[in-house]
Amino acid sequence: MSLRRLSLLLALALGAPLSVHAVDFSAAELARAKALQQRLLTLDSHLDTPANLARPGFDITHRHDHNALSQVDYPRMLDGALDGGFWAIYTDQGDRSDAAHLVERDHGLRRLMDIREMLAAHPDRFQLALTADDAARIKAAGKRVVYISMENASPLVADPSLLGFYHAAGLRLLSTVHFANNEFADSATDPKGAEWNGLSPAGKALVEQAVKLGIVIDQSHASDAVFDDLLAMLPVPFILSHSASKAVFDHPRNLDDARLRQLAAKGGVIQVNAYGGYLVDETPREERRQAEQEIERRLGSWDDMPIEKGVELARAMAELDQRIPRRRATLDDFFVHFGHLLDVVGPAHVGIGMDWDGGGGLPGMADVTDLPRITAWLQQRGLSEAQIAGIWSGNVLRVMRQAQDYAAKQAP
């Protein structure tokens, strides 16, 4: 992950001055929203927090406030009334050589083990969820919910049969591709353009196997042609775990209104995300980009940086924001996307996947402690408690239940 992707979070981590925006909530509204969240089951469909589990010095049970490297930990999940979600096995796209595929295979397995080790180390605080019904039971026991997902299926290229192992170890949500094309699918953002015009033959086979296992398919990061393939071939709904509206901002990662309606007609769900670069054009000018690279050279790569350096990194980026500012998405921009999705497909087909610890976050929504602002906004908009419950977890769990029920009926 690049400093460019994280620059917003870095400024936020030190409490940089917020942009003036129209969205505001009183203390009473936020207290009422938090109380509602504490009653409801609240899940986020895209947590990149597993990237921190092997980071030197990181402890999921300790607070890491004002730290550019962390937005999610157990104490802040309690403060933000987040019950858990889908913890992602994310793998960078390599050069697609045989050697790179082996590296990706091993990386995915290590990240899976990081998640399982967290569960084993803290059984009083976290619990693995395997079915759609597990989440409510885990919440009732006073623990945080851990579904396992995979962002980018490249760890499966060297050996697609590993999908069965991942499923046995807890995998319940699978995306085929990330920023660049791979052997399974076209990415929405590969500068070379389409390679397969959707899913490759291997990608279709992988998706078919996932459906047999009851794994939900995630279309985020894949091209529109992949969406069309999934719509045509899947016997069950699918989701977009962290995406936004193309009508509001024409980014290839976002979904157009026609496809949104097709997704809803199939029973699927789009989980709105808070990565600023998908909400507005945040492209920095060259001077800013070079300054960010210089900070990275000075402090070291994001992947290997000890957690204690995150405070220094936040200070450096906050200073850079003062010296060479760049356009930032605001909380208003986030709610414009959210509102448009609700208007197009209704509250039964929208959820929340903020991209925490993977680039998500906005002024006023810096980490998971700010999540009651979303509930307060939904309440201001006039949604019922049942509708808000669906957005926070019910919709995505309905899709999971349908996928698992279908797989059970097809089993010999």
Provide a descriptive summary of the structure in words:
- One of its GO terms (biological process) is proteolysis.
- The chain has 412 residues and is an alpha/beta fold.
- The protein has a single domain (3-410), classed as TIM Barrel (Alpha-Beta Barrel), CATH 3.20.20.140.
- The protein has helices at 3-13, 27-39, 50-53, 74-79, 98-121, 134-140, 162-169, 201-213, 224-233, 257-265, 276-279, 286-299, 309-323, 331-345, 372-380, 385-410; strands spanning 43-47, 84-90, 126-128, 144-151, 171-175, 216-218, 239-243, 269-272, 350-352.
- Strands 1, 2, 3, 4, 5 and 6 form a 6-stranded parallel sheet that branches.
- Helix 6 links the parallel strand 3 and strand 4 (144-151).
Keywords:
alpha/beta, TIM Barrel, Pept_M19, Peptidase M19, metallodipeptidase activity
Structural class: alpha/beta
Q: Give the mean pLDDT.
A: 94
CATH class: Alpha Beta
The total beta strand count reads: 9
What Rg, in angstroms, do the CA atoms define?
20 Å
Main β-sheet: number of strands, strand sense, barrel status? 6 strands, parallel
Shape: globular
Total helix count?
16
Helix and strand run: HHEHHEHEHEHEHEHEHEHHHHEHH
Oligomer: single chain
Low-confidence parts, pLDDT < 50 over ≥5 residues? 1-21
CATH architecture: Alpha-Beta Barrel
Helix content percent band: 40-55%
Write the layout of secondary structure elements.
Blueprint: H1 3-13, H2 27-39, E1 43-47, H3 50-53, H4 74-79, E2 84-90, H5 98-121, E3 126-128, H6 134-140, E4 144-151, H7 162-169, E5 171-175, H8 201-213, E6 216-218, H9 224-233, E7 239-243, H10 257-265, E8 269-272, H11 276-279, H12 286-299, H13 309-323, H14 331-345, E9 350-352, H15 372-380, H16 385-410
Helix pairs in contact: 1-13, 2-15, 12-13
Protein name: Peptidase M19
GO biological process, one term: proteolysis
Signal peptide: 1-22
